[in-house]
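Input (structure):
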């Protein structure tokens, strides 16, 4: 992370995750933001559902189906996501947590890191 500010690293993570969403899942978010908080990187994506998924979310059992499918896709690519964070932050990822709201179209990623990245910028 030579000579980059916290804001620059957050922007780079946002760009990398958005690119991943586009290339791997076929569409990117309408909005994306990243926050470095102590030893965590929190990524908030909004507007990630396709029109078909939005329609399915109103069907009986649709929300659960969308959550299962999206969770499985992320689990299958978790190594790639971890590598993106390592590349942009220089810190190792200890764990990855994610959830999606099939009602609002928002996804949250939380990457726990092996060190307090926020302190590196102080």
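Output (sequence):
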């Amino acid at each position: 992370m030579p000579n980059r500010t916290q804001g620059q690293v957050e922007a780079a993570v946002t760009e990398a995750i958005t690119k991943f969403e586009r290339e791997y899942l076929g569409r990117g978010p309408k909005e994306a933001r990243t926050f470095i908080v102590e030893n965590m990187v929190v990524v908030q994506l909004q507007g990630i559902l396709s029109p078909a998924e939005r329609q399915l979310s109103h069907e009986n059992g649709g929300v659960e189906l969308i959550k299962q499918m999206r969770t499985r896709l992320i689990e299958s690519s978790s190594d790639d996501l971890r590598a993106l964070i390592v590349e942009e932050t220089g810190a190792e990822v200890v764990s990855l947590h994610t959830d999606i709201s099939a009602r609002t179209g928002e996804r949250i990623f939380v990457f726990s890191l092996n060190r307090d990245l926020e302190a590196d910028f102080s």
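Notes: The mean pLDDT is 93. The two ends are 14 Å apart (CA to CA).
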